[in-house]
Amino acid sequence: MRGIFSVTVENKAGVLSHVAGLFARRGFNIDSLAVGETEDKDISNMTIISTGDERVMEQIEKQLNKKIDVIKVRRYPDNMVVTRELLMIKVAYTNATRADIMQICSITGAHIADLAPRTMVIELTAKTTKIDRFIRLMQPFGIAEIARTGAVAIQREMDQDRL
Amino acid sequence: MMTGAEVMVRCLEEEGIRMVFGYPGVTICPFFDALYDSDIKAILVRQEQNGGHMASGYARTSKKPAVCVATSGPGATNLVTALGTAYADSIPIIAITGQVSSDLMGRDVFQEADITGAAEPFVKYSYVVRDAHDIPRVMKEAFHIASTGRSGPVLIDMPIDVQRQETEYEPVRQINIRGYKPTIKGNNLQIKKVIETLKSAKRPLICVGGGVILADAENEVRRFATEHNIPVVSTMMGIGVMPGDSSLYLGMLGENGKPHANYALSECDVFMLVGARVANRAVVRPYRLERRGTSIIHIDVDPAEIGKNLGTTIPLVGDVKVVFRKLLDMDFKSDYSEWDYDLAIRKAAYVDRRTFNPEYVDPCKFVRTLSGKMDDDAVYLADVGENQLWSSDNYIMKNGKFLTSGGFGTMGYSIPAALGARAACPDTQVVAVCGDGSFQMSMMELATMQQWELPIKIVIMKNGYLGLVREYQHRCYNDRYIGVKLDGNPDFEKLAEAYGLSYFYLRDNSAMDETVDAFLACEKAAIMVCEVYPYDSVKE
Fold first, then answer.
1. pTM score, whole prediction
2. A59 touches chain B (CB under 8 A)
3. How do residues A132-147 score in pLDDT, each as one tens digit?
4. Exposed site from B72, B221, B324, B353, fewest CB < 10 Å?
5. How many domains is chain A built from?
6. Does any domain span residue A162?
7. Which domain holds residue A146?
8. DSSP, residue by residue, B205-260
9. Tens digit of pLDDT for each residue in B380-438?
10. How do A43-51 and A2-10 pair as beta strands?
11. Pick from A10, A62, A72: CB nearest B303
12. Which secondary-structure segment (H or E) carries B137?
């Protein structure tokens, strides 16, 4: 099972290593980890995605809560959050393939961030599964380099209408 | 204006600290210099790790955080084992380490170590102080964090320039750590569920751990068990919660425990764990309990312990003392007499089938004799190894304390921790029991004992082996003994003389009573060597 943890932490030196160290030490998986400041510059937010059984998920939540620099831990089931990840991918092109690539981009909502004589950099913000699929679509053209951020997550408003 | 170091000392005075256990070096010198003008005693130890253990012994006896100090680099890294030991047993100690100047940190200069990084898995929290203005807040928070919730060690790393920095001392009274709000009270709904479960139980069992002692809740738990006639077993860290003469007490459970305690565990229908973390030595096969459908009530101040190693039916987070006071207020009738009777019969029928070579000292008999003769409120420290298991198995609990390194199993713990206990309670009888192996891990502290006039009694169960490992090699490696023979042991009598200690010797069981009497009556610090047969074992 997949667990999405949104972890509010003190924005201090060493906190990231404490959290990452906790996962390493206790043998919890980190599928992805993204960190950034929040609107309050003393507070950062980490989005951590992990897999494991329910007992592991519960331990992750509790062990994170035990860290004194962790202010709040929220654990979401998949359907309660909106997750997005940013992909930057450098793809080789020729005159023959350029149009194909651009067409895939327009279908998937990806943008061309930079165009050089033989390669282009494409950016895509999407769900992790969609990004994985996009990468597979680019493989035949020749991928030179990939950078991805890991997913960030935010809780949906669960109002009556939507239910 | 004051220096950062002077502020540190002032803060320690505010916390009521009377002594610190440490070893100086250049980067912690401003702090030591500030101690010069204070009433706080700087107890010089002979190795930093032992300073940490002394603070641990002091904290466990005084029930307040105690302080150890080391310099940067090797001094600080020597503390790591003591921190790990304190962390595993949730002992509140404050470790202060010197650090190289802030502007040199991260450049691998002389005696620099990333101690907060190295100690991270072994502390409840750590600080690197970058500005002397923060010292009062950091100190206040450190003592608060160390001693509240699930207690534990806190490390404060102090760069030398911060210790020298001029600053105003502004006392901090309020603590507000937004990520740290331990749950103390215990949820009332869960407490009701506990009572409901006990009402319908036929064979309930309470298992007490070190958390009961840390919460100072021995009386509450004893009363609850006695009022409702619920039998009690304990983990090694929980020894001392129940008095030895209680008919409800079945002794220690687990791999090294009493068979009737383990029988109770395997037969109970409600298992109530109190301040214990279900480590593998106590509950060897937790899944069996789960599979059998035993209702498991787990009461602990640390939510992360609940459900970690054992699935729980009723989790109850809170301070053991507070929770048990609430439980005592709940009125319920129960009748477990059949179960109590069954266990009482088994307890009475228990025969220790172990035999010991009659030409040597019988270690079990010795522990019973020693602890039986000790003062009612004496502190008994068991080291690690066969001596620890013989001790925990046979120690007669009256109204004293049984201290040992139960979680981490740190050899050499008993002597320094005993010195710390004695420093906290100068009028209390303190006896450390170790093997010839563990004794030699901290025998340099005999000098500390003499220098600071902390007369403790040290028993060495001498069998010329690292006995527990030898036993293990006997059982699992077909007697292929390697790395366990303690050839080269010193002449302990001469060693006692060299340090100016009284010396007692037991060759066999014949003069045990008189010798133990004389040993305990002796004014001075004393060493007593017991000859234990090298091939006598802990297990049958």
1. 0.93
2. yes
3. 999 999 999 999 999 9
4. B353
5. 2
6. no
7. 84-154
8. EEEE-HHHHHTT-HHHHHHHHHHHT--EEE-GGGTTSS-TT-TTEEEE-STTS-HH
9. 999 999 999 999 999 999 999 999 999 999 999 999 999 999 999 999 999 999 999 99
10. antiparallel
11. A62
12. helix B135-147
Contact flag B179-A59 (C-beta cutoff 8 Å)? no
DSSP state, residue A157: P
End-to-end CA distance of chain A: 24
The ipTM assigned to this model is 0.88
Angle between helices B386-394 and B467-476 (to 10 degrees): 100
A71 vs B116: CB contact, 8 Å cut-off?
Answer: no
Q: Please, is A21 exposed, middle or buried when counting C-beta atoms within 10 Å of its C-beta (0-12, 13-18, 19+)?
A: middle
List Cβ neighbours of A21 (8 Å cut-off, separation of 6 or more): B120, B121
Shared domain for A72 and A10, answered yes or no, is yes
The answer to whether residue A159 sits within a structural domain is no
- Same domain? For A6 and A72 the reply is yes
Residue A159 is predicted with a pLDDT of 63
Q: What is the 3-state secondary structure (H, E, C) of B468-485?
A: HHHHHHHHHCCCCCCCCE
A160 within some domain: no
In chain B, what are the domains? 2-162 (3.40.50.970), 188-349 (3.40.50.1220), 363-531 (3.40.50.970)
Residue of B nearest to A9 (CA): B179
The Cα of A80 is separated from the nearest Cα of chain B by a number of Å equal to 25
End-to-end CA distance of chain B: 67
Q: Are A67 and A106 in the same domain?
A: no
B211, amino acid identity: G
Give the whole-angstrom CA distance, residue B283 versus residue B236.
12
CATH number of the domain enclosing A35 = 3.30.70.260
Residues 6+ apart with CB under 8 A from B419: B54, B57, B445, B448, B449, B452, B454, B456
On whether residue A22 sits in a domain, the answer given is: yes
> In the 3-class helix/strand/coil scheme, how is B336-398 assigned residue by residue?
CHHHHHHHHHHHHHCCCCCCCCCCCCCHHHHHHHHHHHCCCCCEEEECCCHHHHHHHHHCCCC
Q: Phi and psi dihedrals of B354, rounded to 5?
A: -70, 140
Nearest Cβ partner of A68 from B120, B179, B304? B179
Alpha carbon of B139: minimum distance to chain A alpha carbons (Å): 15
Domain containing A111 — which CATH number? Answer: 3.30.70.1150
Shared-domain flag, residues A7 and A71 = yes
User: How far apart (Å, rounded) are the C-alpha atoms in residues A95 and A98?
Assistant: 5
C-alpha–C-alpha distance, residues B452 and B44, integer Å: 8
Nearest one of B315, B295, B313 to B305, comparing CA atoms: B315
Å between A105 CA and nearest CA of chain B: 44
Kindly state whether residues A127 and A89 are assigned to the same domain. yes
User: CB contacts < 8 Å between A and B, how many?
Assistant: 42
Per-position pLDDT tens, chain B of length 540: 999 999 999 999 999 999 999 999 999 999 999 999 999 999 999 999 999 999 999 999 999 999 999 999 999 999 999 999 999 999 999 999 999 999 999 999 999 999 999 999 999 999 999 999 999 999 999 999 999 999 999 999 999 999 999 999 999 999 999 999 999 999 999 999 999 999 999 999 999 999 999 999 999 999 999 999 999 999 999 999 999 889 999 999 988 899 999 999 999 999 999 999 887 877 878 878 888 889 999 999 999 999 888 889 999 999 999 999 999 999 888 899 999 999 999 999 998 888 999 999 999 999 999 999 999 999 999 999 999 999 999 999 999 999 999 999 999 999 999 999 999 999 999 999 999 999 999 999 999 999 999 999 999 999 999 999 999 999 999 999 999 999 999 999 999 999 999 999 999 999 999 999 999 999 899 999 999 999 999 987
